[in-house]
Structure formats: C-alpha cells, structure tokens
Design goal:
single chain, alpha+beta, six-stranded antiparallel beta sheet, 4 helices, 6 strands, rod-shaped
C-alpha cells in the first residue's frame, strides 16, 4: 500500500510539472510550423510525460497485486468462516445427548389392544414406561406393578423407533384379550462395558 501511495504521489508531482508548463499530458510541443515551442521546456515535459506513463504502468501492476491479495484475503476469511461453522455444527451434533439406553423391547402387539391403539409397534425399544426408566428398571415386575396401579389412567411411554425417541400415551385397561396392555415386553440385557 505504501508503494501505491508513493507512485500516486510521484504521478501527481509530474502532473504538476505539466500544469506549470501549461501543456498537460496531451498538449502539442510544436508550434504551427512544426518547430519545438520556445515558450515551454520541451525536454522537461517529455521527461514528465514519459515518467507518468511508466509510473501509471507500475501503478496498474500494483493495483492488480492488491486486487489478488484482497481476493486471497477474502477467500481465506470465507474458508475460515465455513470451517468455523462446520466446527460449530459438528460440536452441536456432538454435544447433543445420545438417546437414553432402552431397558426393554416390544416383541409382540395384539391388534385392537390398548398398546396397539396407543401406537406401540413390534421392535420399539422402551426407554420410559410411566415411572420406570433406564435408571431404575430392575425387572419386568417393575412394569407390571406400574400397569396394575395405573389401570384406566394414561401412562407416558417413551420408545426408541428408527433411532428417534417417540412419546406415546398408553392407558392400561380391560379389553377383549389377555392382560391390560395387549403387548409382550422383554428385557434387553446389556453386557458390562
């Protein structure tokens, strides 16, 4: 940038020389008869015009370099912003808590049963069944106890289905089939890590 400013200063100084002579960059240096003008310093004007031309070429080259540098700077800034956004997105994905581990799986649902009407499907993995969750589940008796005490009352049931957590409302009640739910639930045994 300093070099550009210096060139512009030099060009301006040579333009002042031309203005002082009263000819400018294009004015004629010969009189009507074709002889060098005697009222101006022809050598000084020609030197100033030549130097202006050379300095303008240098100025153009520097401006091209500055333009390229600006493009590179903006491209680098853009790529840094994109990388930061990707990093932020990855961090947000990594920060998202994994779904809780399931403690039981539905391996059978009878058509027309309360479980079927609630939307429970074979293969759903249970992560919450009323007050029973992964942290306090011991055995299937926990679920049976909740069902017995909640007959006729809706229970919140959370299941993992296709990797997504799904919330359902299941009301244990008497129906034409066996039990209060109409589904078969089996525990999931996790190996020690």
């Amino acid at each position: 940038m300093k070099r550009k400013d210096d060139l512009e200063e030099q060009i301006q100084a040579y333009y002042h020389v031309l203005e002082d002579q009263g000819v400018g960059i294009e004015g004629p240096l010969v009189d009507a008869e074709g002889f060098p003008r005697s009222d101006v310093n022809v050598y000084q004007i020609r030197t100033a015009r030549h130097n202006i031309s050379c300095l303008q070429n240098d100025h153009k080259a520097i401006m091209v370099d500055i333009e390229e540098a600006l493009h590179q700077l903006h491209a680098r800034d853009k790529s840094q912003r994109e990388q930061e956004e990707e990093s932020r997105a990855e961090a947000m994905e990594q920060d998202a808590p994994p779904p809780p581990a399931a403690f039981a799986r539905v391996d059978g649902v009878t058509r027309g049963s309360p479980a079927c009407q609630a939307g429970i499907r074979v293969g759903d993995e249970v992560i919450e069944f009323g007050s029973v969750n992964t942290g306090n589940f011991k055995n299937l008796q926990n679920i049976a106890s909740v069902v017995q005490h909640s007959e006729g009352k809706p229970l919140r049931v959370s299941v993992l289905r296709d990797g997504q957590t799904t919330q359902l409302s299941l009301t244990p009640q008497q129906w034409s089939g066996r039990g209060l739910l109409g589904c078969n639930i089996v525990p999931i045994h996790r190996g020690a890590s």
